[in-house]
Amino acid sequence: MNNILITICARGGSKGIPGKNIKLIHGKPLIAYSIETAHKFSKLHNVQVGLSTDSFEIREVSASLGLSTDYLRPAEMATDSAGKLPVIKDLLLYHEKLNHITYDYVLDLDITSPLRTVDDLQVALSLLIKNTEAVNLFSVSKAHRNPYFNMVEEQADGFYNLVKTGTFLTRQSAPKVYDLNASFYFFKRSFFDSYSSAITPKSIIYEVPHTCFDLDEPLDFELLNFLLSNKKLDFEI
Q1: Using one digit for the tens of pLDDT, what is the confidence trace for 5-28?
Q2: 199 CB neighbour count, 10 Å cutoff
Q3: How would you class 231 by CB atoms within 10 Å of its CB: exposed for 0-12, middle for 13-18, buried for 19 or more?
Q4: CATH number of the domain that 124 lies in?
Q5: What is the DSSP letter of 106?
Q6: Strand (E) positions, the chain?
Q7: Does some domain include residue 154?
Q8: Residue 13 lies in a domain
Q9: pLDDT tens digits, residue range 46-105?
Q10: Looking at residue 202, what DSSP letter applies?
Q11: pLDDT score of 78
Q12: 121 inside domain
């Protein structure tokens, strides 16, 4: 059976939604949804769950939800400009040393995009296992805009043109594109020896077949709280 490390990364500072990682949503801290999903997935696989945070408050809340850790994120990885991949890798190396194990896969669950199911994770993992050339997989959603058809960007001369050009007369005839919903990322262990970006020449996707979005602004938080509180989702997280 494959050895899988689930990483849950929760920085203490948040400017868009202050304290969002442990902010209550539908009666639970936001981080609880990812921890619960991790525990459900753990029942199906040989899994260990790691928490990366620079916040003692987040560590305490997580411990109360069944995820305890002695790991504390290094200060240089807890800034606004710090990338997430080095954070995941540092946590991976910590747990490999702690547990005397080399993991086969890493699954990162993003706290601020909790609308994923265990079935989503199961199917996504099987896709990555099946594709022997792929090094990682990330979740996406159907895009409502298309850079070939109805998205523009500023050119060097100050005028505007399509982001990508083609001879398409309708959005439906343009190449299919996707929105990154940031919900989860699967990585083969070898990924961390060769890549510094989650989007590589050997990445594949899993299209989430239901509502899934990232909480960037306070309005996003209120929308998700409404959906959960009023049972508007047609799936269980």
Answers
A1: 999 999 987 666 778 999 999 999
A2: 9
A3: exposed
A4: 3.90.550.10
A5: E
A6: 3-10, 24-25, 28-29, 46-53, 105-109, 136-142, 152-154, 160-162, 178-188, 203-207
A7: no
A8: yes
A9: 999 999 999 999 999 999 999 999 999 998 988 887 899 999 999 999 999 999 999 999
A10: T
A11: 84
A12: yes
Tokens 């609308």 label which residue? Answer: 115
Q: 3-class DSSP state for residue 174?
A: coil
Question: In angstroms, rounded to a whole number, what is the distance separating the alpha carbons of residues 120 and 224?
Answer: 19
Q: Within a domain: residue 222?
A: yes
pTM (two decimals): 0.94
Q: Which domain holds residue 41?
A: 3-140+177-229
User: Interhelix angle for 30-42 vs 118-130, to 10°?
Assistant: 60
- HSE value, Cβ hemisphere, 13 Å, CA-based, for 145: 8
Give the three-state DSSP class for 32. Answer: helix
Structural domain tally of the chain? 1
Helix, strand, coil tally for the chain in percent (to 5): 30, 25, 45
Name the nearest CA neighbour of 196 among 85, 78, 106, 76. 85
Q: What is the pLDDT of residue 187?
A: 98
Q: How far apart are the first and last CA of the chain?
A: 25
Q: Between 30-42 and 56-64, two packed helices, what is the crossing angle to 10 degrees?
A: 50
Q: What values do phi and psi take at 13, rounded to 5?
A: -85, 140
Residue 13's pLDDT is 72
| Burial group, residue 205, by CB count within 10 angstroms (0-12, 13-18, 19+) | middle
